[in-house]
Amino acid sequence: MKTKWLRRLGLSSLLALLGLPLAQAQPACPGLLNHQFANLQDGSPMPLCQYAGKVILVVNTASKCAFTSQYEGLEKLYAELKDRGLVVLGFPSNDFGEQEPGSNQQIADFCRMTYGVEFPMVAKTVVKGPQANGFYRQLAERTGSTPKWNFHKYLINRDGSQIVAYTSLTSPDSSSLRKKIDQFLTQPGR
What we know:
It comes from Azonexus hydrophilus. This protein is of the alpha+beta class and 190 residues long.
C-alpha cells in the first residue's frame, strides 16, 4: 500500500515533502556554445554552456575606442534585462587599431572602475581573421558577418538557432536591437 501511495505522490512531491531540493533541469547546450574561455577578472574557466537557455548579446570590446562609451549602455541593458534571461558577454580584443593594449587585469579594472561593468567578460582574445577564436569563427560563419571594428554585436536566441549581427554603429539602446532582444526574450527555447 505504501508503495502505491509513493508512486502516486511522484518524485517531485516526495522530495518536497522531505524538504530536499528539486534538481533544476538545465537546457541542453547548443553546439554554438560548446566553447570555454578564461574569465577576464580571475582567469577561471568560463564555459559558455552555462548560458544555454539565455538570450546572449556577444560584443567584442576595446578600452581606447570611440565606441568605448557603449560599455555604459551594455551594462545598463544587462542590469535591466538579466532577470528576464539576457546575458551580455564581452570579448576584449586588440584586433582593431590596437585599441585594447592592456593586460586582462588592466581591462577588468578599467571596465569596473570607469563603467561599473558587471556583465561577464572573457580574457583578451582574437575575434577576426584566421586566428579568431572558434566561437567567433562560428558566429561569423552562421551570420555571414565578421566584426569590422570594436563593439560589433551578435545577438543569439535562447536555443542558439537564430543569430543576428549588428555593426559597431548600433548602440545598446538602439530600437532595432532592443526590439530583437525583446522578441528573443519572449520566445521559448526549443
